[in-house]
Amino acid sequence: AQRVTQPEKLLSVFKGAPVELKCNYSYSGSPELFWYVQYSRQRLQLLLRHISRESIKGFTADLNKGETSFHLKKPFAQEEDSAMYYCALSPYNFNKFYFGSGTKLNVKP
Amino acid sequence: DTGVSQNPRHKITKRGQNVTFRCDPISEHNRLYWYRQTLGQGPEFLTYFQNEAQLEKSRLLSDRFSAERPKGSFSTLEIQRTEQGDSAMYLCASSLVGGGHNEQFFGPGTRLTVL
Predict the structure, then answer these.
(1) Considering only alpha carbons, which residue of chain A is nearest residue B109?
(2) Using an 8 Å Cβ cutoff, are A89 and A25 in contact?
(3) What is the pLDDT of residues B27-84, one digit of tens each?
(4) Taking CA atoms, which of A14, A74, B82, B101 is between 20 and 30 Å from B60?
């Protein structure tokens, strides 16, 4: 069965510290992986997707097919990064999306 | 605002009543998705449309739920005989498929409370 697991409900770090938000998945095939972010009182929005290999707002994520992981990383957290982060998976044809339960990132001053 | 809009933003209803939500996607987007999100969980996929065709439905979508996108533009999600377990945030998202891109743009959601 398809599943996306985000083991941490809450992650608190100090400003300037490195951040890693974990995401593991199970899927019988080659999925597309995404990270979505929801800032306070804002809509859910796409942060990055693995096929674009971009760095958005200093965040990167590498797809590790062997470990079936897609962890989100940032070397130096900023207070404005505080938000809810969701890892998501989709089949190649984007006919459905599976979201993890989310990790709340709190960056302290 | 040219983003995805959803109406109403909040709906309180009594158990057993029917409710209908509307989603207006970004105008040129050909795909429209419905999700349900409960407290402490991520969005759960319910169904999606490509233009007016409903191509995928989750097992979560019981026979009390029906969705339509009659002209390939706005969509409605109806819940009949609501139950307290239907209380959730209902999210709509739209995307333009093609060229390898499928970024979903989400609406603000409709929060349903069933008393």
Answers:
(1) A43
(2) yes
(3) 989 999 999 999 999 999 999 999 999 888 888 788 999 999 998 899 999 999 999 9
(4) B101
B6 sits in which H/E element: strand B5-7
Distance CA A45, CA A39 (A): 9
Is B71 buried (19+), middle (13-18) or exposed (0-12) by CB count in 10 A?
A: exposed
Q: Which residues of B touch A98 (CB under 8 A)?
A: 45
Tokens for A103? 């990790």
Omega cis (within 30) before B8: yes
pLDDT in tens, A35-63: 999 999 999 999 998 877 777 899 999 88
Distance separating alpha carbons of residues B88 and A4, to the nearest angstrom: 20
- Does A46 sit within 8 Å of B33, measured CB to CB? no
Q: In what order do the strands lie in the sheet with B5-7?
A: B5-7, B19-24, B75-79, B65-68
User: Rg for chain A (alpha carbons), in Å?
Assistant: 13
Cα of A20 to nearest chain B Cα, Å: 19
Q: What is the dihedral of CA B98, B99, B102, B103, to 10 degrees?
A: -130
